[in-house]
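Lecture 7 notes: from sequence to structure.
We start with the chain below.
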Amino acid sequence: MTIRMGISVSRRDRLLQQVESFFREHLQRTRGASRHTVFSYRDSLQLFFCYLADANGRDVSKLRLDDISESNVLAFLDHLESARGNSVATRNSRLTAIRSFCRYLIRKDRMSIKTSLSACETMPSSSFSTTPACVSAKHCRYPLAPWNSALLDKSE
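Predicted structure tokens for the same chain:
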């Protein structure tokens, strides 16, 4: 357990730490991503994490790095088109954000190579049929809030 800014951070919060690092260090500082890119990636990862939490029946704060797997990503991509009615272009945009995050984790050596490579390298970009529907926000009230507000403040 580590202490950061007076807040106790346990091992299960490691995913949240990596997400924050991805946005602050990688996207903003290293890549110099535009504000719109940062917002798009934020929205994509937020949707993905909400989907994972909902699918696993637990809160977003309880997600772990090993929840990011090829099967979970593929199920999320199916969900985007079938349940949310997203176009192939939107779905691929979400996939780009997830792949970028996974590649960042590989570089930072935060995920096992097996999990990372299967999740990042085998994600297809083929299209699926679409059926509009609503997504459950059961576990997503203010997801990722610790870094979300700081990110918005810095990017504007």
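Points to note: The two ends are 33 Å apart (CA to CA). The CA atoms of residues 1 and 75 lie 32 Å apart.
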